[in-house]
Amino acid sequence: MFELLDILGTMAFAVSGALTAMNKKLDPFGVFIIAFVTSVGGGTLRDILIGRTPVGWMLNLNYVYVIILGYFLAVVFRKKLDRFRTSMFLFDTIGLGVFTLIGLEKGMETSLHPVICIALGTMTACFGGVIRDILCNEIPVIFRKEIYATICIVGGIFFFAMKGLNVPKDILYLLTSVLIIGIRLMAVIFHWSLPALERK
Q1: What is the spatial distance between Cα 23 and Cα 184, in angstroms, rounded to a whole number?
Q2: Residues 6+ apart with CB under 8 A from 33
Q3: Which residues, in sequence order, are CB contacts of 79 under 8 Å at separation 6+?
Q4: Among 11, 32, 36, 39, which has the highest number of CB atoms less than 10 A from its own CB?
Q5: C-alpha to C-alpha distance for 17 and 116, rounded to whole angstroms
Q6: pLDDT class of 83 with cuts at 50, 70, 90
Q7: Confidence grade of residue 48 (pLDDT, cut at 50, 70, 90)
Q8: Buried b vs exposed e over 63-100: b needs ≥16 C-beta within 10 Å?
């Protein structure tokens, strides 16, 4: 289940990055670079922080192949994905749920405190999108009113609560990813957001 989710998350973020880049009318190379950094940016930061080098995607070329596949799928079916905002949102949401789990798992493998594991899960899920948005000249979603990183934190707390109840691992992964994706969808549908801080 974990390996399947890992592949799914990598693919989802690759497509999300490619769609964002095409929406900005970048050339094919630019689209590929955005797809690549969206997929591996968060995981690269996480691995560097926990001292896991070379970072994951450098040791396993399957990640590169999955990103290339996601890139070509986004390019080939771009006309069918003409509703860029909806498509980007859906793929970004899937990636958010899956990559949070991956960060949590990597933190536990390193025997880190649950609070640090949740922080790693949030970084893994969010910072690929931060790099994507910065390169595409957008204010990153994580810094806007829209609920984003908060959902990863809630998902991390839920994960460790269920883990304490000895929920089977595969079911735990599934429940946590569904919770994160579900909250993200409801946040957009019902316009949930954190209050913006303004200087008076």
Answers
A1: 22
A2: 21, 135
A3: none
A4: 39
A5: 27
A6: low
A7: very high
A8: beebbeebbeebbeebeebeeeeebbbbbbbbbbbbbb
Contact predicate 1/168, CB 8 Å: no
Percent of the chain's residues with pLDDT above 70: 92
Distance CA 113, CA 21 (A): 37
pLDDT value, residue 87:
63
Give residue 124's pLDDT.
Answer: 92
Q: Residue 125 in contact with residue 140, Cβ under 8 Å?
A: no
Q: Please state, in angstroms and rounded to a whole number, the distance separating the CA atoms of residues 47 and 53.
A: 7
Q: How far is CA 37 from CA 60, 63, 79, 127, 150, in A?
A: 16, 12, 23, 9, 22
Which two tokens mark 165? 């109840």
